[in-house]
Amino acid sequence: MPPAAESVKTVIAREKHYLTRGTGAYRRASLALFLSGFSTFSLLYCVQPLLPVFSQEFSVSPAESSLSLSLSTGFLALAIVCAAAVAEGLGRRSLMSISLVGAAVLTIATAFAPNWHLLLVIRALQGLVLGGVPAVAMAYLAEEIDPRGLGATMGLYVGGTAFGGMSGRVLTGIFAEYFGWRPALFLVGAIGLAAAIGFIALLPPSRNFVRRPGFDPRFHAKAWLSHLRNPALPFVFAIAFLAMGSFVTIYNYAGYRLVAPPYGLNQTELGLIFTVYVFGIGAASIGGLLGDRIGHFPVLLFGLALTAAGSALTLLAALPSIILGIIVLTAGFFMSHSIASGLVGKLAFGNKGHASSIYMLAYYVGSSLMGSAGGWFFAVEGWVAVVVFTLAMLALAFMSACVAQHFAKNAR
To answer: Which stretch of 144-158, 300-314, 317-331 has the lowest confidence by average pLDDT?
Structure first.
């Protein structure tokens, strides 16, 4: 073999220094990424149990109240695309650190917002700042973790997002019941700041990432277009849009249903329902492990079917049946998300950060657009219309997974 030809493959192989299970660096990275997922999603979704409170406090409709979440996720979606480009020059670790600290500070600022419009502005800014975490975290894992264990590690990260989503919702609900919504948001922001500091202290520097000084728009445009031309990846992106849209729709408007008669739950009781997120933590980890062992697409299809079954269960009138439905929905969604996000790293050919950014863009656009659209269905036809809306999205997600599986097999 000519020396030049030999050097390309050999040097690349030598330069890959993966974090492997059992090492101290692997454990620190796993805990740090868990903290990043926890902080991001606790800060992002802490307002969700407060939507009925905002409707009363500021005299706004359920759809308008949902803007406190939808604006954050919408601006987060836009920021994710830019974050992938910025991270190429600034670095994965630095960008995630700045984002986590900034988002925590803005959450604390939300507690002091004097009116509805300023609250929405702060929440929109928070979404912009948080854009530096999700896509970059996925890219960090894809680059730094041994590919043989990527599914399990991605499941742990997604489990952290589930724990954060649960904690933000539960703690905000409990704090709001006893202290009011403003102190509740202040306390959640302080917890997020502590998690950000822990993340900065623990995360090992990138070893397989090479910075690209300056900003080359043509490079980034070419990288994004290459992933959109991949036959399988656009359908994985569609799954992110549809599955997240259905999940957030159920969670956004379940609170309105459960605080009204005949249930009449208070903020603490409503917040405690979100402890079902613990099933999402387990499902994300189990889904990642099963995907590594028996194949990612079978587990993805099962997770989407489970999400649809949970959504349908919430149609029953009994409160235990509604809670069971939310549990099943949560487990199915996080299993699907852990598998789909891992597939992005496996199916992308180079520039994995850009592929992850498109996935997360679709994920949060689905949350923002479909989460708000669900309010129109709820206002016009009630809970049945909300469930039909989510089931339609999940049916499309299931079909997208089947098509992605077909193209992935043909590409081998």
So the answer is: 144-158
- A 10 A CB-CB count for 252 gives 25
CA-CA-CA-CA dihedral for 363, 365, 368, 373, to nearest 10: -110
Cα separation values, 107 from 126, 128, 130, 316, Å: 7, 13, 11, 36
Write the CB contacts of 284 (distance below 8 Å, at least 6 apart in sequence).
Answer: 155, 156, 158, 159, 161, 162, 334, 335, 337, 338
Rg over CA atoms, the chain: 21
Model pLDDT, residue 183: 95
With vertex at residue 307, the alpha carbon angle to CA 302 and CA 308, rounded to the nearest 5 degrees, is 100
Backbone angles phi, psi at 265, to 5 degrees: -75, 145
What b/e string do you get for 31-41 counting C-beta neighbours within 10 Å, with b at 16 or more?
bbbbbbbbbbb
Place of tokens 């300056």: 214
DSSP, residue by residue, 199-249: HHHHPPPPSS-----S--HHHHHHHHHHHHTSSSHHHHHHHHHHHHHHHHH
Span 148-169, mean pLDDT? Answer: 76
Comparison of pLDDT for 20 and 105, the residue scoring more: 105
Is residue 249 within 8 Å of residue 62, measured between CB atoms? no
101-134 CB burial, b ≥16 within 10 A, e <16: bbbbebbbbbbebeebeebbebbbbbbbbbbbbb
- Residue 147 three-state SS: helix
Q: Assess whether the previous peptide bond of 298 is cis (omega < 30° from 0).
A: no
Q: Could you tell me which residues are beta bridge partners of residue 145?
A: 19
Q: Residue 141's closest CA among 83, 90, 206?
A: 206
pLDDT of residue 5: 42
Do 334 and 281 form a contact (C-beta atoms < 8 A)? Answer: yes
Stated pTM of the model: 0.73
Q: Which residue has the higher pLDDT, 57 or 278?
A: 57
d(CA 33, CA 198): 10
| Phi, psi torsion values for 19, nearest 5 degrees | -85, 125
The position carrying tokens 């405690």 is 272
Evaluate if residue 245 carries a pLDDT over 80.
yes
* Terminal C-alpha separation, the chain: 26
Distances (CA, A) of 183 to 51, 180, 186, 262, 321: 16, 6, 5, 29, 33
